Each structure stands twice: as C-alpha cells, then as structure tokens.
Amino acid sequence: MALENDMDKTAEKDVEELAKNNILVTTFEKLWDWGRARSFWPLNYGCNCCPIEVMAAGAARFDQARFGYEVVRAVPRQADLLTVAGPITIKMKPAVERVWAQMPEPKWVIAMGNCAISGGPFKDGYSVLPGVDSIIPVDVYIPGCPVRPEALFHGMLELKEKVQKGKYRRS
Amino acid sequence: MFEADIYTVNVGPVHPSTHGGLHAEAVMSGEIIQDVIVHLGYVHRSVEKIAESKTYQQFTPYTARLDYLATNLPVLGYCQTVEKLLGIEVPERVEYIRVIMAELSRIASHQIAISATGIDLGATTGLMYGMRDRERIMDIFSMTGGQRLLSSYIRIGGVAEDIPDGFISAVTSFVKDIPKMMREYDGLMTGNEIWQARMKGVGILSKEDAISYGVTGPNLRASGVPYDIRKAEPYGIYDRFDFEIPVGCVGDSLDRWNVRIAEIGESGRIIKQALVNMPDGEIKAKVPKVIKPEAGMEVYHRIESSKGELGYYIVSDGGTKPYRLHVRAPSFINLMVLPVICRGGVFQDIITNIATLDPILGESDR
Amino acid sequence: MAMDTEKITEELKNRFHDKITLQEDKFILKFLVEKDELLNVMGVLKETYGFNHLANVTSVDYGEEFELVYHLYSIPENHKICIKTRTPRNSAQVDSLFGIWPTADWQEREVYDLMGITFKGHPNLVRVLLPDDFTGHPLRKDFVMKG
Hints:
Strand order of the largest sheet of chain C: 1-2-5-4-3
Order of helices and strands of chain A: HHHEHEHEH
Oligomer: heterotrimer
Largest sheet of chain C: 5 strands, mixed
Largest interface: A-B, 36 and 34 residues
Number of helices of chain C: 3
C-alpha cells in the first residue's frame, strides 16, 4: 500500500481496504466510547415528579432496556450516568454533590425537567437552586414538566451521540 | 458474651426505596432497630410561600405537583376549596366527570404503591405489572388533559373541556379489567411465602396510635378504624355512590397492602356508577375572570386523597392572591409513625414499612 | 349524630367565660381562645367532647400578631371544630399540644420552622423542612424571596 503525504488520507484508504476483508481498525478510545455510549449505568436518583416518568421509562411499555440502559445501580460508585430529575433544594445540595463526587470517571449528567434545568415553576422559591448546573456540570438538558419517557430517551440518545464522538469531559 | 454497639445507618436521601428524598436515620443495636429519626425537607419547594404570590388560577398547576401520583386528587381538593370560598356550585356533569377522574387517580396511585412495594421488596415483576396497568390510566389522562402525569384537567369552576370521544369506552374497558388486575397482584405477590414472611406482623400500628398520631387514609383503615372522608364528610357528590370501606384487623404491613388492593376494586365500583348516571350538561360554572374572594373569609376543606386526609386552608384578604395557603399533607403526618412502627424490628423492616406507609415526598415536604 | 353547636358553645362559655369567644364562620364552629387557656380548652375538647383527631395545625402572620389555627375532628361522632389563638409577634410562644395529641409533634415543628413560633413543652423543637443552618422564617410576611 503506497504511502501518501497526508497520513489521514492514507489511513482512511487502508481502513476501507481492510474493512472489505472484515478487519476493523480503530483506536482504543473509539472502542471504549462506542461501548460506553451503548451501556450507560444510570444511578437510581430522583426527587419529585420527573422520576415517576423515569420509572415509566424503565417499565414494560417504554422499556429503556432496548437501548441498553436498564442496568440501574443503587450505588453511585457503580454508576456512570446521573439523571438529575427534579429540583435541587438547599437541603439536597450536599447529597447531590457527594453522590456526584462518588461516581467514578467517566461520568455524565442529564438535567431532566424544568426544575433541574432552571428551578422550573419553583424558581421563585427560597429553597430551590436555579438549576443543577449551578453545582455540577451538565451534559444534556431535557426540558419538560414532566418529561415524557420518549423525551427522556431522546435525551439519552443525544448523550449517546455525544459520548460516541468522544465529546465529553475527561478527567 | 458480646455486647452489641449502638450505631447509625442512614437510609437515604439518595436511595432507591425512599420514594423521593426521605432520609431515615436508623439507630441500631445489633440487628434490632432502637429508633428511626426521620429527616425531611429534601424536596421542600416553598410551595406555600409561592402561593402568596400567584393568583388563585395560577396556583392550580402547583397543586398537581404536590401529590404527583394521584394528580387529580390534590387539584380537585384545591378547586373545591376555592369554589367554597366563592360560593360556586359546579354543574352536575362536572361533578360526575370529577369523580371519575379522582377515582382513576386513586387507582393509579395505589398501583404505583403496589409497584413500588414490589420492587422495594425485590419483586421486580410486581413493578412491571403495576406500571403496565397504570399506563392505561395515563392514556385516559392524555386524552382529557393532554398530559400523562400532571394533568390540569380539573379547573376552578369545572373542567377544562368536555370529555372527548373514546373516553367512556376507554374507562369502561379499564374498569372491566380491574378484577383481573387485582387477581394478578394477589396471585403474584400477596400469597407468596416470602411476601407473607416480610409483611405479616411487621410494622404493627395500633388503632390508638394511628388516631393520636393523626394518621389518615389507607394506613388508618388498615389499623381497624373505618374512617373515610368520602363517607364521613362527603364532598362533591360522593354521598350518591354505593361503595365499601376496606378495613384491616391488625394494622401490620400486610393489612396496609391488602387495603390498597381492595380500594382499587371499590374505586372501580364508584367509576361504574358514575359512568351510568352521568347526565349531559355544562362543563363549567360561572366563575369571575378575576377571582377575589371576600376579605376575611377563610375555609378549611379536606378530601380523601389516596394517601389520607388532604386539606387546604385558605385565608383571603380580598385580593387576587391568597393571603395564606396551607396544605395539610397526609404523607407528612403519616410519616410521623415510621419510628413508632419500626422500633423493635429488624433493619429490612424499615423498607417494608416505608413502602406500605406509601408516603409521597413531594406532598410531605411541599 | 349531628353536633349540637349551641350546647357546646354554651358549655364552653360557662366553663371558660371571657377567655373563649365565638367567631363567625359559615363553614365550621370557630372559637378564639386566650393563649394561656389553650391547653385547658384543648384538654376539655378531647376528654369531654371526644375530639380525638387533630387534623391541622397552622399559623398565619397578621403583622402585630401571629394566629394559630387548629382544626379538630371527632372520628366516632363525626363532629368538627376550629380553635384559634393569638400570640404577639415579638414574643411568639404558645403551649405545645404534644401531650394531648402526639400528632402535634411535627405539625408544631413545621410552624416553628416556617413561622418562628416556639412551643412550650414540645419534646424536640427543631426545624423539620429547612436545613438546620437556615436563617429566618420564610412564611413571615417580612421574609422576602429573592427571585
């Protein structure tokens, strides 16, 4: 195979050639990202109305298992996706920060629902934070009050695209 | 030979079985619970203060977000309280529609209670069955209010719009399947040996304790007190319906579980009667565009929610916004007995007791 | 059996004289009680008249004074009554009803937490809904929410 001046073009041509013979060439990074995107382990977390739709998303009708996201963990140390569903109150803030700190890298956050994005209908209140992104970084925002299970899946698939492309925070 | 230490184990606030953000601090000696200290407020959204800055109509969606599993019930309670303040009587058709929506909400709430108890105790299929059946109710709510979960269909003075085509057949077919659903829940879970071992004799709440701690709803009825506000102080048109009040004997977790399943059947009976007797007519009473109850008027109106006595206390100062609005949340008061029923039991009984008390933290913390 | 409101009113007036005043309300029998007689009145309502269900304890900020509102029900007889009492803003304290109805425990804690009224004789008067280090009592009219 002749070498060209542009290494990327060379690599692309070679990859195509190999693929015709059923050999896939990739980097470890891309392989891990491909796998991570298809198997998020969500943490079982939620306060308020939106987690009920998370439960409905996990149940038989909507079924998040068909996307590979049914392994819901109870312990943050085993989870990699924190779906913040519901408002963060001032009393809950330390708990969320601690849970976030306990999750191993790489980890992602979905802010689900208007309350998690900005405080929602309760933003005038004295005890609700103006969105979870005031304490932890957020990857995907899903608006809604409450968020329909289909919208939750859309958000998770957006996150899947993001992770697969490798466009996420690395420690 | 060995002395047991006193130590604390935290259940929650981030825990799969705590129904929201409940933090139960269990003080243990060996395997036996000495005390449970309940910490609330993780979902406190300052709803009562927000009410003082919203008009009466603007506040209606907030009530749906209080008890989000049985959304039509808190909205119904709030709308009836404001209607009482204004002296409005809603049309007959509205009363019947409201009864159907309220009882469907009650069934949906009990189905979640059943699902959540199932998954808390390890029966994942119980979760699937309850959620699957509840989806039919969610479709009916989508048909009317446009929203699955937080339906704002019931409004002050009536309902948002008349029931659409397909509503009656959907509700009729759902109600017809209720006995089959109850048999399924009983068959899968109630008779199961593990279920009986984990629930029978666990978390016994005596009649006297239940009344003196202000417990209401299925928890009170499971302890042997046949008190249901729909019969004691009927609101709307509940005095026209023929239904029983399921009552337990012992007040343990199994009784609380059985009472909820039986209540699903009774709600089905009420819906059937409402469908048969519903007249034609208007769907909204004459409500002023700007709601301003008389200054100095106040009212405490209560309904039988799926969790217990849900009361609204509204004080008006003659303005467009309530001077004071207080929600008497049944879950807040029911949770008071959690330490009482857990003491002396083993650690896993905390999960069973929380599940069968069926608190909802959105309402409890407001 | 329907509640004989006139009989109860007469008996309570005879017993507590000017410490108890009947208030006009078209929904419920309502009395305003002097705060130092509150415990006695409540005891009588429970023991003599069978009001065993303290359904609701709440408070309202009327500027110079706070008003406490209690809604009581009798489960066996199906009666209802509303008792109110007032306490001055600068020394807001009322007797706790925990000894009569244990349900007053958390309900009074909530009133303390959100309105700042203290309850004498309460076994554990700490905040229940807000964090322990929160300053202020949000339901007071002078507590302004920063949007």
